[in-house]
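Quick one, tokens below:
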């Protein structure tokens, strides 16, 4: 079983929680850092490259499927937050992924094109694209790299509730982690010039072609990201399941083991990785 971390995170943040708990339930597990993040290679650091992110999961299958103690015909995959969209993109063209589960999934393409609840206008989108394009010239001529989005580093009375939710994980001892050689000021923040690549990322197109391999979409009933799991479920073909966790928000399912449905994940993969 392969586990991918939230967008902007590293394997130590959430992915290892899932990998360790599923290992305790008898699965061989592998968590990975996406390219340009954590201990994975790639320059510039924190670059956005959705096609490469998806390839990372196929590369993880390459590795796991060549271990002598692994049955390469029984490999499943879990994508948390942004990785949910990357594993779907990968699974569409990699049939070695026999069962796919996502948790608190973000469609990173739709989230950047439209923002939550389709709140970003086309004019605002084009302004972001123009800023990123100008920044490419700056960086090409050895200017300063700029970063965008990610999690705020301090709270005030104007901080949005969703940012407060992320802050409680990424900027407190609960989930804070700075990779070796990195800076806490840059964790979670993708580069400004590359982040627009998500606007050209459509992971849910042709999601129905993953069938008859099963898909499980897990989300919290209070999750601000719930729209993405519901959209993927609507588009996917059978067998599929939308599993909603009562009283759970988006970030709750990163690490709150009392809310994460490990029994459901265990039964799903046990049934479909026979």
């Amino acid at each position: 079983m392969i586990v991918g971390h939230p967008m902007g995170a590293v394997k130590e943040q959430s992915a290892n929680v899932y990998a360790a708990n599923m290992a305790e339930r008898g699965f061989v597990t592998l968590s990975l850092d996406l390219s340009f993040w954590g201990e994975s290679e790639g320059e510039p650091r924190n670059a956005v490259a959705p096609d490469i992110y998806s390839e990372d999961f196929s590369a993880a299958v390459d590795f796991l499927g060549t271990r002598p103690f692994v049955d390469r015909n029984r490999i499943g995959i879990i994508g948390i937050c942004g990785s949910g969209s990357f594993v779907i993109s990968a699974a569409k063209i990699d049939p070695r992924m026999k069962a796919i589960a996502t948790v608190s999934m973000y469609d990173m393409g739709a989230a950047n094109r439209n923002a939550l609840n389709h709140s970003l206008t086309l004019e605002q989108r084009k302004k972001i694209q123009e800023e990123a394009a100008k920044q490419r010239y700056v960086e090409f001529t050895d200017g300063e790299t700029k970063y965008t989005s990610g999690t705020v580093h301090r709270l005030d009375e104007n901080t949005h509730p969703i940012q407060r939710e992320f802050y409680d994980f990424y900027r407190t001892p609960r989930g804070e982690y700075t990779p070796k050689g990195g800076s806490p000021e840059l964790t979670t923040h993708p580069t400004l010039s590359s982040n627009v690549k998500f606007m050209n990322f459509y992971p849910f197109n042709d999601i129905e072609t993953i069938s008859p391999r099963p898909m499980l979409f897990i989300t919290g009933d209070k999750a601000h990201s719930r729209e993405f799991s519901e959209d993927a479920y609507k588009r996917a073909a059978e067998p599929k399941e939308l599993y909603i966790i009562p009283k759970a928000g988006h970030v709750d399912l990163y690490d709150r083991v009392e809310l994460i449905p490990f029994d459901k994940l265990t039964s799903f993969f046990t049934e479909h990785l026979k």
